[in-house]
């Protein structure tokens, strides 16, 4: 196949840049602030281009493996952010986690998504796809807010602080269970948030009414369940082994839908929010008891004192769009 000169030039640049980046990151290899994967600017929007991107990387990464065995991270935080969000707290509060923080609205950032679409689902899937060959052993997928009420109302920890959540996280449980929702409180989400056959569709934005078409596209060979339920909000921890139970193509397939869908972000993002636990091997209704969950996931066993906030409902904007099928340039990892 003929390779266009421009592509050759891009690949050459990529090689040089990557070697330089590797050199500088090798020298502080122990520093958890340096993600072990090589951040390479995403040059292509489509997956065809991405494959070339991956190939280019594979070729240049291999030789240096001999010099310094590349060990995947033990544990890493994956996060989406707006350029204007302050995420310095992640390094300060959680220094022993590696960090993969994707800016969704600035292509100049080392880690960024191809587009700002689908809320936190886009950075989450982008991370998995880009790092599939070298995933951290434990991954925590988080929102960009540090804590506090009301902005981090759905953090299930004292002060709604992400730090308090992750400091207590039982890594061995995540490894054993494969997946753990970082929220144990059932409201909202359990016992049956999404009922895709309910007529007329209910709930915020009637999101469940769009679930069937997505289910059929994602899991065509599996009968669509009548009820999907899990604690809300799309913050969870997963083991590498669990992620690898699906082939890379599945995640590419999910992200392709996210890139293509005409549904507004509030709907596509919410649909993904209620599919993560299924993607990672749990049954459609996955609502462990609050006490059991708190004990297993956070080791808060005898002293379960956490009190639910005064109201559990998020501050939702009403979308004035009758058919709710258009993309919008708004990222809200924070609901
Ligand atoms: C990215 O960098 C280019 C070149 O330096 C600059 O023109 C552009 O404004 C930057 N974009 C953002 C969003 O900062
Ligand atoms: C599911 O797969 C079958 C067989 O591959 C195909 O005929 C059908 O159209 C698919 N359905 C959807 C909704 O994609």
UniProtKB/TrEMBL annotation:
Q: Where is the composition biased (Basic and acidic residues)?
A: 317-328
Tell me yes or no: is Membrane among this UniProt entry's keywords.
no
Pfam families reported in the protein's UniProt record = DUF3431 (PF11913)
Q: Where is the signal peptide?
A: 1-21
Q: Which UniProt keywords apply?
A: Signal
On the tree of life, the source organism's domain of life is Eukaryota
Q: Which residue intervals make up region (Disordered)?
A: 310-335
Entry's PANTHER family?
EXPRESSED PROTEIN, PTHR37490:SF2
Q: What name is this protein filed under? A: Uncharacterized protein
